[in-house]
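Slide 14.
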Amino acid sequence: MRSVFVRMAMLCLFIAGIGSGLARAESGPGATLANDDFEALRATLLEVETTDLCEQVRRCWKGLTLERALRAASSQEEALVEADAAGLLRGFVALMLHDKSCAEPPADVLAEATEYSRRFGWPASAPSDRLPGP
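Slide 15: predicted structure.
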């Protein structure tokens, strides 16, 4: 429930940022919503999603479903659906959460991560160029 409120707050801040950007655009040439502002907002939203996804896997890697993953990380919908269709949802999530101080994936999840990486390469959101160790 917390994540819903955080996302709503971030959306309000985003909308307010667009409004202030439009005001700046009207006040002078070249004044628009700064790309840095948008990237900072995006990073904050992704950080909230990472936290929510970590909470999901802390409860139980085996209980991770597409529905729960989408609820936690909706910005990754296309990749989550693709990974789930390939039967590698937990492996994809393990790669996404690598180096994020989340629950250590069990051996079967690491095997899925290896298979996901072999088939699809590393997800764009994965911070490393190598698989997490067992």
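Speaker note: The chain has a mean pLDDT of 74.
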